[in-house]
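Comment on both lines for my students:
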Amino acid sequence: MNKRNLIAQSSSRVLSGVIAVAALLLWGFPSLLRAQQHEDFDQYQLQLSASWFYSNPSGSIQGSSDRVPVDFQRDLGFNSYSTFSTKVDWKFTRKNHFYVAFSLFNDSSQIALKRTIVFQGNTFVVGSLTQSELHSFFVAPGYQYDFIRRRRGHLGLGVQCDLFNTSARINAAAQVVDGIQHAAVSASGSLLAPIPVVGPQSRLYLTNSPRLFLEGSFYGMYFFGYGDFISTADSLGYSINKHLSLNGGYQLGSRLTVNNNQSNRIGLRMTQEGVIAGLAFSL
């Protein structure tokens, strides 16, 4: 079992523990956290959140007719980079939410190949100077129901459709490698993958003033023969006032897999993980 799988499993265990503790405190001890006549700590109708994400990408991409996938780090030299994500949440009743989340992942590199690779049937020879780009746009509309909601927090279940629009391009100009002239070569591929996912999301306020809170989520789904998606995120937040809050944490084990078992579809295995920090504005 590799290191990333261990990280993803550890994240799932940590998140499971956070959710279990939240459920115990919110539901199992009503005498301590009984709903009062005062407003919820996170009362709002509309919330806009934005997060900075320092992503460490890994994975591979495989053309529709290729036998061996191309590794993002080992073959193409992709490194960590900064990106962002946003979310608009409309809480139209105390326990019901409609929301839309957006994320953007772009990476590029220039590297002399350490091995010969093939992408979309085009061969890039070892030693050639190659430029690579990966662009992925993510949008996820969803619905969440807070089946446990108290003044200090909630435990809800979300259902959303993750729509990934991903494109990749690899270019190598005409050049001489080991005394042999090689012609320019270029290859590109794209993938539009809709994946419905489901999972819990929770928030628990630890203190009254200042209002510190823990927040966690886990979404996933597995499709036989098609692919799978898993995402977990955990953060510690601080509510400055009823309209503005700050948070920071770590996203672990965000992993998308789409198999290329169709002649017209590329395969993609992409993991994004790293530090996250953001703010939320509520009305």
Observations:
- Residues 104 and 137 are 5 Å apart (CA to CA).
- The first helix runs from residue 3 to 28.
- The longest strand covers residues 129-150.
- Residues 3-282 form a domain with the Lipocalin fold (CATH 2.40.128).
